[in-house]
Hints:
It contains seven helices and no strands. By secondary structure, the protein is mostly helical.
Amino acid sequence: MRQTNALRAIVSFAVGIYITFSQSHSAAIGLTALAIFALAFAVTNAVGSAIWGKGLIAIEAIPLTIVSLLVGIFAIMVPGHDEANARIAFIGLITVWGLVAGAFELYLARRAGFSSTVGRDYLLSATLSIVLGLLFLVAPLDIVSAVGFFGAYLVVSGVQLGVAAASPVATK
């Protein structure tokens, strides 16, 4: 879990920094960042679960890995030259990602127990993802704001996952 969180933190933070320092916050940049993030997240989750996951933990990572893989593939498939359709696709994919990933991480938090360290880490990740998905669902965002909010989510999520990975393990 800790190693997977560390890998996910690196991916999130790196893509968030890419968006932050990109001069253009166009739909093409947003879709590129989303594709990189989602595909790297899927690979990181799959590899982390296969190497460090044991039993049910490895199996529970499969749905989020599949959703990430699909979001990454769909982000690649969107033609970047059509700005209006790229904007709609970007906002739709981020909404789906945020709500589905958040709901699944909320399930994992409940399963781990909200009072445990792992449960609280999942709960915080779930909250960030759900807030992102709801923001994109209800707020009429222009593309510059949408890409900026996605970058901010990635940086905050990367820092949170990095702190979770570096936190000491509680002993019983």
